[in-house]
């Protein structure tokens, strides 16, 4: 069966109402995404405890799926009329029938991080059985190792962990960095994320990789400092969280920051230089990984 997919850019104020009305009018599914995802204008909407939170992106993209026989143009027009808005420009494309499971799996091959570190989905054979292999499948939480930000953080852990460190993965997503740290010799690893689904995914992934890590929502994270603090999130929350992340890092400990665009390096270095002696940034595909040593 083939489908029609509409991508409709709208303002934050109408995204939810339009999505609900499209479902009422006969759409098979509707999702709301960031219209600027993957660009410098990408917007972080999830806040931290005691910080303001937004529900949707200021410039949202409503993505609706229709049966191939549906009159998608008429449905979209009716949905806009029902919410009292003018129809915005949108794109409509045909999606051919697919074996969606096989298609999804085909997009995730083993990823070589270094000579000794691989990320391998469970449906693949390990390319190097003697290497450190992270068994990780794509899921509801961010972090499969394919994105440059995750790749950069994994490379840093591979290059710098000496063994026995206690590691904090702030914004753990799938738990990949905490799990990798343990498999690379860290003594303990703790992950924290604001998304309960990420905590579930991280625990499942840790069990799958036969390691024990502790994963928490921010409000349940125990007090304490860490030898290494890794935060692979985005520049906006990193701007706000500097003092807190510094407080979680031991004197002489290391901080690792990613989710930062190359053009944001100088600004972020300036912020974190209040507490850390910052190293030269590592850049990959326009994304940066910053690191530094906390001053005593």
Automatic annotation (TrEMBL):
Q: Which keywords fit this entry according to its UniProt record?
A: Cytoplasm, Methyltransferase, Ribonucleoprotein, Ribosomal protein, S-adenosyl-L-methionine, Transferase
Q: What is its main location?
A: cytoplasm
Question: What sort of enzyme, by top EC class, is this?
Answer: transferase
Record keyword Methyltransferase present = yes
Q: Which residues bind S-adenosyl-L-methionine?
A: 150, 171, 193, 232
Q: Which Gene3D superfamilies match?
A: Vaccinia Virus protein VP39
Question: What reaction is this protein's catalytic activity?
Answer: L-lysyl-[protein] + 3 S-adenosyl-L-methionine = N(6),N(6),N(6)-trimethyl-L-lysyl-[protein] + 3 S-adenosyl-L-homocysteine + 3 H(+)
- Keyword Cell wall biogenesis/degradation present in the record's keywords: the answer is no
Q: Which GO terms describe its biological process?
A: methylation
Q: Where in the cell is it found?
A: Cytoplasm
**Membrane-crossing segments per the record:** none
Q: Which GO terms describe its cellular component?
A: cytosol; ribosome
EC number(s) on record? Answer: 2.1.1.-
Gene Ontology MF: a single term: protein-lysine N-methyltransferase activity
Regarding protein family, the annotation reads: Belongs to the methyltransferase superfamily. PrmA family.
Q: Which HAMAP family match?
A: Methyltr_PrmA
Main function: Methylates ribosomal protein L11.
The name under which this protein is listed is Ribosomal protein L11 methyltransferase
Q: Which gene encodes it?
A: prmA
């Amino acid at each position: 069966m083939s489908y029609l997919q509409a991508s409709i850019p709208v303002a934050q104020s109408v995204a939810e109402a339009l999505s609900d009305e499209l479902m009422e009018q006969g759409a098979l599914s509707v999702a709301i995404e960031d219209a600027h995802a993957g660009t410098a204008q990408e917007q972080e909407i999830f806040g931290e405890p005691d910080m303001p939170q937004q529900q949707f992106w200021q410039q949202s993209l409503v993505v609706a799926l229709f049966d191939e026989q549906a009159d998608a143009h008429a449905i979209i027009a009716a949905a806009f009329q029902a919410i009292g808005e003018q129809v915005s420009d949108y794109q409509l494309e045909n999606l051919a029938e697919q074996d969606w499971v096989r298609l999804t799996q085909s997009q995730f091959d083993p990823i070589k991080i270094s000579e000794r570190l691989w990320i391998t989905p469970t449906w693949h054979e390990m390319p190097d059985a003697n290497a450190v292999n992270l068994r990780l499948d794509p899921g509801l939480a961010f972090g499969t190792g394919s994105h440059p930000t995750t790749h950069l953080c994994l490379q840093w852990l591979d290059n710098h962990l000496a063994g026995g460190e206690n590691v904090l993965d702030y914004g753990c997503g799938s738990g990949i960095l905490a799990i990798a740290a343990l498999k690379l010799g860290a003594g303990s690893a703790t992950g924290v994320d604001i998304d309960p689904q990420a905590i579930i995914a991280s625990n499942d992934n840790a069990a799958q990789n036969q390691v024990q890590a502790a994963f928490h929502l921010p409000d349940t994270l125990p007090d304490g400092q860490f030898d290494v603090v890794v935060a692979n999130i985005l520049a906006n929350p990193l701007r706000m969280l500097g003092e807190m992340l510094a407080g979680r890092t031991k004197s002489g400990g290391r901080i690792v920051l990613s989710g930062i665009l190359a053009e944001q390096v100088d600004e972020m270095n300036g912020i974190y230089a209040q507490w850390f002696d910052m190293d030269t940034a590592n850049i990959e595909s326009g994304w940066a990984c910053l690191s530094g040593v906390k001053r005593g």
